[in-house]
Every structure is written in C-alpha cells, then in structure tokens.
Design goal:
This protein has 13 helices and 10 strands. The chain is of the alpha+beta class. The chain has 2 domains: 202 residues, no CATH class; 83 residues, no CATH class. Strands 2-6-3 form a 3-stranded antiparallel β-sheet. A 3-stranded antiparallel β-sheet has the order 8-10-9. A hairpin with a 3-residue loop joins strand 9 and strand 10. It is elongated.
Length: 307
C-alpha cells in the first residue's frame, strides 16, 4: 500500500465519529496514512512532533493535543505524549495502533464499501499546498469517498447537497468545493475536477489526482517541507522576540547556528538576560544591544549557550 491508504467508511457513517470536529477527522486520516506506511515497512509505531502537526494544520499545538485526545477517547488511536529527555531535548509524540489503518481492519458498512483508497501523495498535496484549509481537505476526502461509492462508467458523479450534511457533517461544502477549484490548477491549466452547482446537487466531472513521483525522486517530501516551515517559524519567533526587547536589526547572522545548538526557549531566556544587563562587554565596538553584539558575546562564552 505504498501509494494509497484506506480511509474507513465509518468516519462518514458512524454517528459518533462523523460528528467529530474537522480537525480531528483530518488528523485521523493523516495518522492512518502514516501508520499504514510504517506498518508496510515493519514499524509498529512512529513519531511526529506536535509542532510539526501544528505547522501542517496551521493551528496551535493545543488544538492538535485536544483533537488527538478526542481520537484516543473514541478508541481510534493510541499515543505517548512527547517529553524532554535527560539532555533537555524534545522527544516527539509516539503513535501506534491507529484503528482502520489497514484494509483488513476496515469492517463492513451498510450500503457502502468498507473503505475508500486515498491516494497518499494527492492527500499530502492537498494538506501542503494551494491555500486549502482543513475544511477543504475534509471535503476532498469526502468527495473521494462518495466517488468511490457512486461514480458512473464515465467517472462523473453527483452528490445531493443533503448528503454533505448527512455523511460529512458539512454545512457549506459548496464553498469548500469552490475553494478547491479556484485555488489549484495543474501546469496545463486543468483543475482537480470540473463541477456544476445545481439547486439540490453538485455534479463532479473529470476528477483527477496527482501523478506519483518517480521512484527515488525528492518530489514527495511532505514532512521535509513541513519541517522547513517549522524551522522558519522558529527563526521568526526569535527575531520577533529580539526586536521587542533589544535594538531592531536587519542582520541575524549566526541565528541558524544558534538554533542548531539550543532550543528557542533557551535562546529567548538569554536574549532576556542580554536585554536587562546594565553593563556588558563591547566586542562589536558599540554599546547598542544589537543581534551582532549578542552573537559575539555568546561566542566569547557569555550566557552559557553555544553558537
């Protein structure tokens, strides 16, 4: 199942599950995808930090934690929260036993197929790019599920608008469909699908997916891209904090090296010490509290952090 993962129909039909917030449902789909991929290579557990998930979902870590707890309470996942080890370094949250992450686990559902095959790369693209929000991502998953159960020989299908509410718990799915359509086009100019919004139904035509990256290519680097966003967030957080307390500066030379060896929390604590100190050496020849002076002092052994 390298290219796809099963998304159980229960997430759309079980009253207890389909009432969950969109964040929880999309989080479950992502964890099911990751568990499916790791099980295929013999790993019974995997690690994802709350910070990476919050960056991927464009929400706070508390939102991730709250929705993860909900998934666990409903018996859909098991996890061990991240923690700081003896070296004061973070260990990411451990996930395992994601329910329905394999086709064999997806039990029968009345009227519908047990699961829908979700193309992994396409799902990652929806999460990663094109200004799609989580409601758009959930609508995309629902469209794939409905297509799996209702498509015609031509591949076209229609969805009664009341089905969005009944199965996806979506009130404004037509707007999410419009957003998906408007915010993405392939290089050829074509869209993920064509659609027609009628009075009581929406017709979907020519629903396509992204092509899989070539074997060994670096095109599918979802977590690398999310991690890069995370690193940019760290850099911006330190910059904002420094500018609030000290002399605003245009150059932050040395910051990347500083972040490689120290946590954001540690760096902010030392910036605070730097800002509040009345008497400091002047290795840069100025008494202004610039970032260049701060880095120079760190490299001379002040503040007990390394750069």
């Amino acid at each position: 199942m390298k290219n796809w993962f099963p998304l159980t129909s229960k997430i759309f039909t079980n009253q207890n599950l389909k009432q969950m917030p969109v964040t929880a449902k999309v989080l479950f789909a992502l964890l099911a995808s990751e568990d499916n991929l790791h099980l295929a290579i013999g790993n019974e557990e995997f690690y994802i930090s709350d910070r990476l998930l919050s960056i991927a979902f464009n929400c706070s870590k508390k939102t991730i934690q709250r929705n993860r707890k909900m998934l666990a309470e409903k018996g859909l996942i098991k996890y061990r929260e991240g923690f700081l080890n003896q070296n004061d370094r973070g260990v990411a949250t451990t996930y395992k036993n994601i329910k329905y992450s394999t086709a064999e686990e997806c039990t029968e559902v009345d009227e519908f197929s047990n699961y829908v095959r979700i193309h992994r790369y396409s799902f990652r693209q929806v999460l990663e790019k094109y200004n799609f929000n989580l409601k758009d991502a959930w609508t995309y998953l629902f469209l794939r599920w409905w297509e799996n159960n209702n498509s015609t020989e031509s591949g076209d299908f229609f969805i009664p608008k009341k089905a969005f509410k009944k199965y996806a718990n979506c009130k404004n799915a037509d707007k999410n469909i419009e957003n998906i359509y408007n915010n993405f086009a392939f290089s050829s100019g074509s869209h993920l699908f064509e659609y027609e919004d009628l009075y009581k139904k929406i017709i979907i035509r020519d629903f396509v997916r992204w092509e899989d990256p070539e074997e060994g290519s670096n095109e599918d680097h979802f977590w690398d891209n999310v991690n890069e966003k995370s690193e940019k967030e760290k850099i911006n957080e330190v910059k904002r904090y420094f500018n609030e307390l000290c002399e605003p500066t245009g150059s932050y030379y040395g910051l990347n090296e500083l972040l490689e060896n120290n946590s954001v929390k540690e760096i902010k604590e030392k910036i605070n010490e730097f800002a509040e100190a009345n008497i400091l050496p002047q290795p840069t020849g100025t008494d202004k509290k610039t970032f260049a002076r701060f880095i120079a002092l760190v490299r001379e052994g002040h503040f007990n952090i390394s750069a």
